[in-house]
Write a structure and sequence with these properties.
Elements lengths: L7 E3 L3 H12 L5 E3 L6 H5 L15 E2 L2 E2 L11 H14 L9 H4 L4 E5 L3 H12 L4 E4 L9 E2 L2 E2 H7 L12 H5 L16 H6 L3 E3 L2 E5 L2 E4 L3 H25 L4 H4 L21 E3 L5 E6 L49 H15 L9 H6 L3
């Protein structure tokens, strides 16, 4: 290795490894830093039963793709870690997991937020026979499959995954909630399915005061909004099948049982408050997602929401780039498959083969 290296990649997850692969292909000297090696978070900071929301065929990085026997399956966190480690090793780059269920006391559980992680945890706890209450915030509802195809097949086919930040207000797009899905084929974990299995739905949690949790009264509006988005997407899928002669075989698929359009769902108003002890709730799980922590980054590029201001990975600080931001440019930026597009933008900028300036309009818009 030379005595000086002009590119340092911080983080050896899918985004960092994708950038490294493209730099290696262009003969660019660089070093990848990570506190725990390749795929550290996948190995050490995910619960055992976690699976990808995206099907295996959509798991792709530069020069690398899923090569296992189950293209339509969903890899576990352990499988993803092994896959990324093999990816790192293929380019000559260089477990104590969360036992969350074992750490919870017996009794019911209040799950706060109803996006992907929240509904998956609620699903597993219902399987364990626990009483489950879900405090519902903003969420996205879609079926796991529709007309015989995985929903991500439809999102890819309809162009939803590669819509860019310019199609929507950047601030709103980057706070878009994840889908109510689980990485198991034909398994529904949306709020309607969970309620039918015994979960109780309440509004967004406002606060906990002693033994009492307080909730807002917007549960009907939130579920109605999620239902409307789902209807719009599935209507678009139906129109696509009707218009495209190449999909005539899909037109013949019956829309029965788990492949049918889910029932519409608008929840009734929930209670304004709940005594946790009286209802047997002994644990509260905050499935509110992850927020970035850039306290260690002593460069003035972080906006009011804690995200790095950037345009296609390029920041206003000369030489500083970022990959893996939510909706960095395309909607699929946070999926493994989207990392390759983020990496291409950044490497093009690093090697002066693409636009490097952060547009003035985007600088202000990214703070909204």
């Amino acid at each position: 290795m030379p005595s000086t290296v002009d590119t340092v990649i911080v983080g050896a997850g899918q985004s960092g490894l994708a950038v490294s692969a493209l730099l290696s292909a262009r003969g660019r000297d660089h070093v990848v830093l990570d506190r725990g090696g390749a795929a550290h978070r996948w190995r050490e900071e995910r619960w055992d039963s976690l699976r990808l929301l995206t099907p295996n065929w959509l798991t792709r990085l530069p020069g690398w793709s899923y090569d296992g026997p189950d293209l339509d399956g969903y890899m576990t966190a352990r499988d993803v870690a092994a896959w990324l480690q093999r990816y790192a090793a293929s380019s000559r780059r260089r477990s104590s997991r969360r036992k969350w269920k074992r750490s919870l006391p017996a009794g019911g559980v209040l799950v706060v937020v109803a996006s992907a992680t929240g509904v998956q945890l609620a699903d597993e706890m219902l399987q364990d026979g626990r009483r489950v209450v879900i405090a519902v915030g903003s969420h996205s509802r879609l079926p796991r499959t529709y007309r015989g195809m995985d929903i991500f097949w439809w999102l890819d086919r309809l162009g939803a995954l590669f819509r860019t930040i310019g199609d929507r207000a950047p601030g709103r797009s980057r706070r878009e909630p994840s889908l109510q899905l689980i990485g198991v084929a034909r398994s529904a974990v949306d709020l309607l399915a969970l309620r039918r299995r015994g979960a109780r739905l309440v509004g967004r949690m406002r606060r906990i005061d002693g033994d009492v949790a307080y909730f807002d009264d917007h549960l009907p509006e939130r579920t109605a909004a999620a239902d409307a988005v789902m209807t719009r997407i599935l209507d678009a899928a139906d129109a696509h099948v009707a218009a495209d002669p190449l999909l005539l075989d899909l037109r013949e698929l019956t829309v029965q049982s788990d492949q049918s359009r889910p029932d519409g769902f608008i929840a009734e108003p929930g209670p304004a408050q709940l005594s946790l002890g009286r209802h047997g709730i002994t644990s509260v799980l905050f499935a509110t997602g992850l927020r970035p922590d850039y306290d260690w980054l002593r460069v003035p590029v972080v906006d009011a929401h804690g995200y790095i201001e950037q345009w296609r990975g390029t920041t206003r600080a000369p030489g500083l780039h970022v990959v893996g931001q939510p909706f960095q440019h395309r909607r699929d930026s946070t999926y493994i498959d989207g990392a390759r597009w983020n990496a291409q933008d950044v490497v093009a900028s690093l090697t002066r083969q693409g636009a490097t300036a952060m547009p003035r309009r985007q600088r202000s818009a990214s703070c909204s």
